[in-house]
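Lay summary. Proteins are chains of building blocks that fold into shapes, and those shapes determine what they do. In this project we predict the shape from the chain. Here is one chain we studied, written as its sequence of building blocks.
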Amino acid sequence: MRAKKLFAPTADLTNSRRYIAALISLQSKAPVHYSVLLATEVIWTDAISTAATDGVYVYISPEFFRGLESDSQRAFLLAHEVSHIILRHPQRGKVYQDRGFFRPNVSFDHGLYNRAADYIINSDCKAMGFEPIPQGCYSDEYGRNDIVDSVYADLYQKQDDDDDIHGGNKSDKPSNPDSDSNGGGKEMQDEADDAGAQDGEPTADESEASDLPEPAGHDHHLTPEYEGTDEEQDAAAREDEHDIRSSVDDGIDQLEADGRDPARLPESIREGSHRYRPSNASDTDWRAELADRFNRAGAGGQTTWSRIHRRRFSTLGVISPTSIGQIGRVSIVVDISASVSRDMLNQFMIESASLIDTLQPRDGVVVAWTNHQFHSSDEVYSGAELLDLEAPCGGGTYMTAGVEWLEQNGLESDLVIVFTDGEMYDDDWNALGQRDNLVVVLDSEPVPYIRRMIGVSGADTIVAQAA
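And here is the predicted shape, written in a compact code that computers can read:
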């Protein structure tokens, strides 16, 4: 991982009996979380009083971990921290905090947002069969399938209605986690098994961390930090996200290999995967939608016999004229991350090639291959040339990088098409939604989080579907 480590380790419990027992429980009940935890560095540190995550690393106080009532509570703790990573709660909270508001006319309260996240995660951890930690935040009103942004908005509204800032006694309905727990007495200390302090003095960050206030629940909610220029930090954050989603993919693959159905996972967890796609198909005729966007950009076209319609001739054997519109340049920004459906990309390119041959853009077509940054470009003037291109593969996802590359190089386009799986940061969606003459083509039906971002960003979107 590329994020800065906020605290230095002061111990190592990774080989302790307690940690191994918690891992066994986690693997049995939550294989996706187990897969992500294996790809996550756990830092055992006295710099915090309980546990924490910044969305990249997990920090655990050895004393707090040992003091939990049972192995099931320790597994609950691990699943809880990993859930924050899978659901990107620290990263999403940072976006709201940096911009200073949640949405227009709704301010952002980090503590309230953290509580909303804990309600959802703790509900999920209980549903998976782990024993809840008594210090945690629980709610009978919000469940594992809720979305943190929706819960935050609801809590914020209730907070306003009750005039009970940072309260929660009236509206949050905390439940007693002990009512459905397995109980169990505190285990005996196993100092020999849990020993293993590491060398190294606490960092400056650790000294500051000792002044952290006690968390409202059982853990601290931190935000990731990166070093370097703004561009370097953004690139590192996107690469970390790509790695995290890949570890979720591995967990889902293992779930399927064990004969278990990934569809039984909460939607919020499945959204953290590159590969998961919902089974419900869209009613949108995406080919007609795509042709409509091309035709709008090339309105006022003329028919000419100077060149035959080559694709129609090659497929139907019919000689017919081409239509030359007023369209100047078309630019296509293609998401080359490994999560994009190659089958749908091929279908999209075939449809685009036919439309290019029909409209004959005066200045050709620029293809900007993009992952978490601009990768490379090609320029073509016919559908056949477009279909001859070989698409690169790999990296994260940040489609605005490709659009900005076009703008920085003075490549003004009458139509910009972004083909992607939609697994993008909120700011990426918002940047695309602010641009004119741009349409986003998704390779499959979007999951709830992506649908919500489409609505928030206002991006013109088409959902491609297999024939």
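What the prediction tells us: The chain has two domains: 17-270, 286-463.
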